[in-house]
């Protein structure tokens, strides 16, 4: 057994800081940097699937990736209250070009775009202006949609025994759960007012509180869809990203440049914290174990110590 983290691969070819990561299937990781360059790499060794696609979009907020035959495709959203970007856009990262049409969402920014499989079809879940919509990946057209709370700060896509779900969180309302195969059925989650959902696996949830400002989230805990808390609060420096490894093991990246692997039901650290040169802004998990982190100008895959054997 090893007691040290191992760097599987690392790349530092971006000219701008990495802002978003996503997985296109189990074997391709996609990264977007602040300048709008998007790149797909093989998760196994970090080698590029294709040269970067330069979108020209500054400050991508949403990145949804999927496989389309031999190609890797993504949907992006961007914009803010200061710089408008109204469009949901799709890109072919192998052909290195945009897939028309761009879809005008009639908003200042498109912040919530996620991939999902619904009735066996690859789709996009898009939340905007109080509407949760399921859209086709090929042309962006609406398959189904439902009205929700108008404000949304977080969207998490998961799958339970009943099928795929989206969980939305809002500062002003309780979290809502939507069964993606039947959007007529929305469930108000019985969580305390002011809680949000940051990640999920099955009916297990990674939770936080709006009592901590959005840029100073420090405390997280485990819960479930029934509203039960499943473990103690875990607190520390400001949290910059979380990702579930294999429940209850959860990766937590913090502003002090560490990435911890924590049993969220006991609060116990499963390995010494990994320390990075820059804070990780996005995390994805490969094979339920390794973590891929976007930090500074770099993307790297790390293998943790043998925590399953030692737990």
Secondary structure topology:
Layout (H helix, E strand, L loop, with lengths): L5 E6 L6 E6 L4 E6 L3 E6 L10 E2 L5 E9 L2 E8 L8 E6 L4 E8 L7 E7 L2 E8 L2 E6 L5 E6 L6 E7 L2 E7 L6 E4 L6 E3 L6 E7 L2 E6 L9 E6 L9 E2 L3 E6 L4 E6 L3 E6 L4 E2 L4 E2 L4 E7 L3 E6 L2 E6 L3 H4 L1
Antiparallel strand pairs: 1-29, 2-3, 3-4, 4-5, 6-7, 7-8, 8-9, 10-11, 11-12, 12-13, 14-15, 15-16, 16-17, 18-19, 19-20, 20-21, 22-23, 23-24, 24-25, 24-26, 27-28, 28-29
Give the CATH class of the domain at 208-305.
Mainly Beta
**Number of DSSP helical runs:** 1
Strand content: over 45%
Helix amount, in percent?
under 10%
Count the E strands: 29
Summing up helix and strand content along with how strands pair, one would put the structural category as mainly beta
Q: Main sheet, how many strands, which sense, barrel?
A: 5 strands, antiparallel
Kindly report how far apart the N and C termini lie.
Answer: 12 Å
CATH topology value of the domain at 208-305: Lipocalin
Radius of gyration computed on alpha carbons:
18 Å
Compressed to H and E, one letter per element, the order equals EEEEEEEEEEEEEEEEEEEEEEEEEEEEEH
- What is the approximate shape? globular
In CATH, the architecture of the domain at 208-305 is Beta Barrel
Structure notes:
With 311 residues, this protein is mainly β. The protein has a domain at 208-305: Beta Barrel (Lipocalin), CATH 2.40.128.630. 1% of the residues lie in helices and 54% in strands. The protein has one helix and 29 strands. The protein has one helix at residues 307-310; strands at 6-11, 18-23, 28-33, 37-42, 53-54, 60-68, 71-78, 87-92, 97-104, 112-118, 121-128, 131-136, 142-147, 154-160, 163-169, 176-179, 186-188, 195-201, 204-209, 219-224, 234-235, 239-244, 249-254, 258-263, 268-269, 274-275, 280-286, 290-295, 298-303. The strands form seven sheets. Strands 22, 23, 24, 25 and 26 form a five-stranded antiparallel sheet that branches. The protein has a four-stranded antiparallel sheet with strand order 1-29-28-27, with no helix packed on it. It has a four-stranded antiparallel sheet with strand order 2-3-4-5, with no helix packed on it. A hairpin with a 2-residue loop joins strand 28 (290-295) and strand 29. It is globular and about 50 Å long. 40% of the residues are buried. The mean pLDDT is 93.
């Amino acid at each position: 057994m090893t007691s040290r983290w191992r760097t599987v691969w690392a790349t530092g070819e971006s000219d701008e800081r990495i802002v978003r990561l996503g997985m296109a299937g189990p074997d391709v990781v996609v990264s977007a940097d602040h300048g709008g360059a998007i790149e797909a790499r093989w998760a196994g060794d970090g080698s590029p699937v294709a040269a970067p696609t330069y979108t020209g979009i500054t400050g991508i907020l949403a990145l949804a990736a999927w496989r389309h035959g031999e190609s890797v495709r993504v949907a992006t959203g961007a914009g803010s209250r200061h710089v408008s970007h109204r469009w949901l856009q799709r890109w072919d990262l192998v052909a290195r070009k945009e897939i028309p049409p761009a879809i005008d969402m009639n908003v200042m920014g498109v912040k919530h775009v996620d991939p999902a499989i619904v009735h066996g079809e690859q789709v996009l879940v898009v939340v905007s202006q109080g509407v949760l919509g399921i859209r086709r990946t090929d042309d962006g057209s609406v398959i189904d949609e439902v009205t929700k709370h108008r404000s949304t700060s977080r969207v998490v896509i998961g799958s339970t025994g009943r099928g795929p779900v989206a969980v939305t969180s809002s500062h002003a309302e309780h979290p809502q759960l939507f069964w993606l195969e039947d959007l007529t059925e929305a469930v108000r989650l019985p969580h305390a007012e002011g809680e949000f959902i940051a990640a999920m696996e099955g009916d297990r949830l990674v939770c936080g509180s709006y009592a901590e400002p959005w840029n100073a989230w420090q405390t997280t805990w485990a819960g479930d869809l029934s509203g039960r808390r499943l473990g103690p609060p875990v607190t520390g420096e400001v949290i910059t990203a979380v990702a579930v490894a294999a429940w209850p093991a959860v990766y937590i990246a913090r502003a002090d440049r560490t990435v911890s692997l924590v049993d969220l039901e006991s609060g116990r650290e499963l390995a010494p914290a990994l320390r990075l040169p820059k804070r990780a802004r996005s995390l994805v998990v490969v094979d339920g174990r390794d973590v891929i982190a976007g930090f500074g100008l770099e993307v790297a895959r790390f293998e943790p110590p043998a925590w399953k054997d030692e737990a």
